[in-house]
Amino acid sequence: MLILTKEDIAVVCSMEDAIEAVKEAFIVHSEGSVKVPLRINIRSDKYNGNMLFMPAYCEKKDAASLKIVSVYPDNKEKNLPSTPAQVLLIDPTTGIVLSIMDGTYITALRTGAASGVAFSVLAKPECKTGALIGTGTQAAMQLEAMIVSKNPKLVKVYSRNKDRLNNFVKNMSTKFKSKAVELVACESADAAVKDADILITATNSDRPLFSVESCKPGLTISAVGSFTRQMQELDTTVLKKASKIYYDDKEAMLEEAGEIIKALENRDIDEKKFSGSLGEALAGKIKLRENDEEIIVFKSVGLGTQDLVTAKQVYDNAISKNIGKYIDIG
Fold first, then answer.
1. Nearest CA to 215 among 246, 231, 194?
2. Fold adopted by 113-303
3. I want to staple 269 with a disulfide (CB 3.0 to 4.6 A). Which of 93, 172, 273, 328 is the partner?
4. Where exactly are the structural domains of the chain?
C-alpha cells in the first residue's frame, strides 16, 4: 500500500494537473458512468462536528475510492485542521486498497480545481479583479485555482477573523509573488465583492455573506462552502438575479446546498432557473455564458467523483515518479 502525504501530493500533482483531472471528473459524472451514492453525513453534536463518508466507483477509469472527511470548526482553536480527511484508492479488480492519501490536501486540491474549471468555461474572457471570501482550509487552493484559471491582477479577500485574514494575505502575497497579482484585505464581504469579475465563497456560514447590490454585471460566482441545509453563503436575491445557475450534481445540490434549498422552499426561484451540470457544459451539451453582462452562479457541494479521479491522477503520477512510502499491512 502506498502512503502519500500532502508533501508527496504537492510534488506529483500541480493545480494545472488537478484542473484537468476535475474536468474529466465532471464529464464522466454527467455521463452517468460513475457510481456515487450520496455521501453519508454523521453529525456529532457533542463535539460540533460532521463526519462524512464519500464512496465512488468508475468502471471507465478502473478505479474506486472512499473519502472519509470530517468538518470540525472548533479544531482551529486546537491548532488542528478543521477538515481532517483521508482518501483510500481501491483496485476494483481485487478490492485491495492501493493507497492512502492525505484527504485534507486532496479535498482542498480538487475543490479548488472545481472553481478553476468553472471559471475557465463560465467566466468572462478577461477577469481583472477577483474576490475570495473565507481564509480557512480551502482558501489557499481556491486562490491558486483562481489565479491559474483567469490570472486576475487584483484579488480582494475577506474573513471575519481579522488576524487570520491579514496573515493569509501576507502569506499568499509571498507565495504568489511571481504571478504579478495584488492581494488586499477588505473590511467587509461587500467591499470584497464590489467590482469583482470572479468570486469564490468558501465558508461554513449559516447566513448570506454579501448583498446583491455588490454584484456587478458579468460576475461569476463559485460557491463551494455550504454543504448542509443549515448553511447559506448566498442570499436568495443573488440567486434570483443570476442569469444561469450551474451545479456539480443536481440531486446532491437539492439535498445539501442550503442556499438553494431555502430559495426553492421560499419560492424565490424554481428549478427552471437551473442551467444544468458543469459536466454537461464541458461536454458541450448545454449553453455557457452568452454575454459579458450575465451574472452566473456555480454551486458545488463536492462529489466523490472529483476525489476519485483526482486521487487516481495523483496515484499514477506518484508511481511514475517513484514518490511515496510503501507499507505492508498483510
1. 194
2. Rossmann fold (3.40.50)
3. 273
4. 2-106+305-326, 113-303
Residue type, 34: V
Which three three-digit cell numbers place residue 129?
479583479
Cβ proximity of 212 and 241 under 8 Å? yes
Distance from C-alpha of 19 to C-alpha of 31, rounded to nearest angstrom: 19
CA–CA dist 236, 252 (Å, integer):
19
Instruction: Pick the closest to residue 239 from 289, 275, 203 (CA basis).
Output: 275
Q: For residue 96, which amino acid is it? A: I
Nearest CA-CA partner of 100 in 88, 108, 109, 91: 88
**SS3 at position 191:** helix
Q: What's the rounded Cα separation, in Å, for the pair 326 and 100?
A: 10
Active-site annotation, residues: 67
Q: Which of 137, 91, 86, 117 is nearest to 277 (CA)?
A: 117
Q: What is the pTM of this model?
A: 0.91
pLDDT at position 29 over 70: yes
pLDDT band, residue 76 (cuts 50/70/90) = confident
Segment 137-152 mean pLDDT: 95
Could you give the angle at the alpha carbon of 316 between the alpha carbons of 314 and 320, nearest 5°?
Answer: 115
Please calculate the CA angle 235-238-242 and round it to the nearest 5 degrees: 150
pLDDT in tens, 152-201: 999 999 999 999 999 999 999 999 999 989 999 999 999 999 999 999 99
80 in helix, strand or coil?
coil
Q: Which CATH architecture has domain 2-106+305-326?
A: 2-Layer Sandwich (3.30)
